[in-house]
Amino acid sequence: MPEIGNTYEVAFERPKSMYAQFDRKEDLQHTTHYCAGCGHGQVHKLLAAAIDELGIQDRTVLTSPVGCSVFAYYYFDVGNVQAAHGRAPAVATAIERSRPGATVISYQGDGDLSAIGSAEILHAANRGENITVIFVNNAIYSMTGGQMAPTTLVGQRSTTSPGGRNPATEGYPLRMSELLATLEAPVYIERVGLGDNRQIAQARRAIKRAVENTTKRLGFSMVEVLAPCPTIWKMSPVEAQRWVKDVMEKSYPLGVMRDRVKDAEPKPEPMVAPGLAEIPGLLGIEAAVPGEASRSGHRRRGKAVHLGVRVAGFGGQGVLLLGEVLAEAGLEAGLEVSWLPSYGPEMRSGTSNCHVRLASEPIDTPLVTMPEILVAMNEPSLRKFDASVKAGGWVIYNGEEFPAELMREDVHVLAREFTREAQALGDPRVANMVMLGALLELAGVVKAEAIHKALTKLVKSPKWVELDERALARGRVMAREEREQVSRGCGVMVG
Amino acid sequence: MKADRGQLRVDENECKGCGLCVEACPPHVIALSEGLNHHGYRTAKYAGEGCTGCGMCWMVCPEPGAVTVLHLVAATVQAGGVECTGN
Ligand SMILES: Cc1ncc(C[n+]2csc(CCOP(=O)(O)OP(=O)(O)O)c2C)c(N)n1
Ligand code: SF4
Ligand code: SF4
C-alpha cells in the first residue's frame, strides 16, 4: 500500500497582527528589543492573539507608553500612536472619541500608569472611556535602569531604594486595580500574572475579554498583568517567572476586581470627526490652514510688517478687547497675528494686560516683552511697562501729566486724557477705542475697512459699533495732530 | 508506532534562549541547544518526539514568531497500514 507521511498543520504561530519583520536596525529585524524572558514580549503575544481571534486587526489602535514597551509600534501591525509618558489614556480617549468603529487599547507600564500617569488613568477610568488598558506591572522602572516605582514591593531593592523600599519613607505598593475598582464607571478590571502556565492561560483569557468589551463599546476595561523583568530584577527568566508567583502575587492578589460586563449598556458610537478642511468653517473663520494656498493668496503683498503691542490697564477698561480688535483686524488684513491675555499675579490687584503681534511672517512667540507700542490705560501700567518699550517706539498714555521720571529720550509719547475724550463722545468706556484709533494711526499697518470688519465681528450691538467707530476716528485725529507736532514722525513701523 | 499529536518548530534566528518553554512544556520535550545562534544565544530545541501540540511553549514565548506548533491532521500508522485523522 502506498506510504503517505504524517501530515501536520500549523496550529500556533506568529500572530497575524504582529509584523513578520520589524522596521528596526538591520540585524534586529527578526527579534524584538525585549530581553530574554521579558513579560512585555509575553503580553504582546497574548494581546496580538486576542486581536487575531476577535478579527479586529484593521480597526485596532494601540497607544504605546514610555518605558521598555515604547517601541510596541515596531511589532503590532495595527494603528499605533506613541504617547508621552503617562498620557496614553488621554491619547486613547481622543482616538476613541474621534474614530467611530475603532478599538482603542492603551498599553502601559507601572511607572507610566501609576506614577507620572496616575491622573490620566484615574480620570479615563472614572469617565468610563471605552478603551482597554493593558497594564504591565513589573514593580519597577525598567527602561531607565531600575528606579523605585509606586508599585515596588516593600523591601524590594532598587537604585533609588538601595536598602529596600521602606513604607515609613516611601509608602506602600500602589494597588491600581483595587484603587480603580472603587470607581463607579469601570466595567471590568482583573489582575492576572505570568507566574506559570495556568496563570498565563488566565492572562490570555482576561486580555481577550477586556478587548472584546471594548469592541462591544461596554466601557472601561483594564487588565493588570504581573510581569517578569529578569534583567532589572537580576534573575534568570525562569527565576523571574517564579518570583511573580511566589513573591509578587502576595502583594498583588490575582483576581477579578470589577465585573459589570453583563449589565453594561453599549455606549453610543462617537461622531465622525470633521476633516481639517471643515474646521475653519465650524469655527466661523476663513480658511487659515497653514500652508494652504488660500492663505498665501490672502496675504497682503508689499511692506513687511512686524508689530508688537502691549496693552495694559485696570480691569474694566477694555484692555483685552482693544487687543482683540487689533488682532482680529490684523487677521482681516491677511497678517499673521497673536493675542495673548496675560493673567499674572497682577490679576489680583485688578489690572490686566495683553500682548498682540501682527506680522507678515509666521510668529515665533506671542509674548511681547519689548513692544513697539505700549498702550498704558492707567499710571501703574505705565510705570510697569514704560522701560520695556523699544527705542524709537511709542507710548500711548491715558493721562496728560506724563510722570517726568518716566520720560525717555528714545521713545515718542502721546499722553492725553483719553477717558475724557471718550466721555465727550458719549461714554467713558470707549476710551480703549480712542486709544486704539491713535495706535492704528501711528502704526499704519491695517486699513480702516479691516478694523470695521473686526469690530462688527467682536462687538455685537450696532449701537456700540457706531460709538466705537467714532471713538476710533477721534483717536486717529488725535494721533495725527500729535505726529504733525513731532517732526521726526513715526519710528514704529518697521518696514 | 503512533504518530505524535504535535510538532514543534523553533526559529533559531528569533529565539533568545530564555528557557521559559523548556519550563512550560508538560511532556518535557524541549531543551536548550548546546551551540549558540549568531546572536550568541542557546536556543530552544525540540527533542524530536513526544509533542502533544498543547501550545504552551507558544503561549509563554516572549518572541512573536520564535516557536510554531503544528497539529497532526492525518497520520499513517505504518504497522497496520491504517490511516487515521487526528484533531
Ligand atoms: C516626561 C518623562 N519623564 C521621565 C522619563 C524617563 N523615563 C523613561 S521610562 C521611565 C519609567 C518607565 O517605567 P515603567 O512604566 O514601569 O515601564 P518599564 O520600563 O518597566 O516597562 C521613565 C521615568 C521620560 N521618558 N519622560
Ligand atoms: S529591562 Fe525588563 S522590562 Fe525591559 S525589556 Fe528587559 S526584561 Fe523587559
Ligand atoms: S506544544 Fe506543548 S508539548 Fe509541544 S513542545 Fe510546545 S509545550 Fe511541549
Short description:
The complex is a heterodimer of chains A (495) and B (87). Chain A is α/β, with parallel strands linked by helices. Chain A has helices at 39-54, 72-75, 88-98, 110-116, 118-127, 167-170, 176-180, 197-215, 230-233, 237-251, 279-282, 293-298, 319-332, 379-385, 418-425, 431-443, 448-458, 462-485; strands spanning 7-12, 60-64, 79-82, 103-109, 132-137, 188-193, 221-226, 255-259, 306-314, 336-342, 351-359, 373-376, 394-398, 412-416.
Keywords summarizing the entry:
heterodimer; A: 495 residues; alpha/beta; Rossmann fold; Pyruvate-ferredoxin Oxidoreductase, domain 3; 2 domains; seven-stranded mixed beta sheet; six-stranded mixed beta sheet; 18 helices; elongated; disordered C terminus; B: 87 residues; mainly beta; Alpha-Beta Plaits; three-stranded antiparallel beta sheet; two-stranded antiparallel sheet; 11% helix; 36% strand; binds thiamine diphosphate; binds iron/sulfur cluster
Radius of gyration of chain B: 14 Å
* Name of the CATH class of chain B: Alpha Beta
Do you know the CATH architecture of chain B? 2-Layer Sandwich
Structural class of chain A: alpha/beta
What is the number of helices of chain B?
Answer: 2
Low-confidence stretches of chain A: 291-300, 489-495
Number-wise, the strands of chain A total: 14
Q: What integer value in Å does the Rg of chain A equal?
A: 32 Å
H/E series of chain B, N to C?
Answer: EHEEHEE
Could you give the order of strands across the largest sheet of chain A?
Answer: 3-2-4-5-7-6-8
Distance between the termini of chain B: 18 Å
> What is the highest CATH level, the class of the largest domain in chain A?
Alpha Beta
How does the helix and strand content of chain B classify structurally? mainly beta
Number of self-contained structural domains of chain A: 2
